[in-house]
Amino acid sequence: QVRLVESGGGLVQPGGSLRLSCVASGFTLDVYTIAWFRQAPRKEREGVSCITNSDDSTYYADSVKGRFTISRDSAKNTVYLQMSSLKPEDTATYYCAAGSPSRSYFTDLRDWDEFTYWGQGTQVTVSS
């Protein structure tokens, strides 16, 4: 059974850090581009970051660039999202997704419908 399971979310103060994990079962993450998306209440789903399967190139939304780092541990079949200098506007449910997106996805990381497999999400709340 193909599954993606996110973990690592929680409540953190502004300026704090969290590391999200996305663990795959039933398939190998290395064959897909893995992306993180987030969605806050009453807002559209937003692309956050991705790492490609071809050469582990990484991409970031402007809103998180310099603060978030995506990485892959093939031995653990896991992708991480290290989040630092967190802001209240980072509050959202974070989802990981696996797929083989077209080149256009990488221009703005928005096309979530190009991803095949999704996790159930993990909540991140940044508040004092």
Structure notes:
The protein has 128 residues and is mainly beta. The chain is 3% helix and 48% strand. It has one helix at residues 105-108, and strands spanning 3-7, 10-12, 18-25, 33-39, 46-51, 58-60, 68-73, 78-83, 92-99, 115-118, 122-126. Strands 2, 4, 5, 6, 9, 10 and 11 form a 7-stranded mixed β-sheet that branches. Strand 7 and strand 8 (78-83) form a beta hairpin. The radius of gyration is 13 Å and the shape is globular.
| Average pLDDT | 95
Structural class: mainly beta
User: What is Rg?
Assistant: 13 Å
Task: Indicate the proportion of strand residues.
Answer: over 45%
- Give the distance, in angstroms, between the N- and C-terminal Cα atoms: 40 Å
One letter per element, helices H and strands E, the order comes to EEEEEEEEEHEE
Strand segment count: 11
Uncertain segments are none
Shape: globular
How many separate helices?
Answer: 1
Largest β-sheet summary: 7 strands, mixed
Give the helix level as a range of percent: under 10%
Which tags fit this structure?
single chain, 128 residues, mainly beta, 7-stranded mixed beta sheet, 4-stranded antiparallel beta sheet, 1 helix, 11 strands, 48% strand
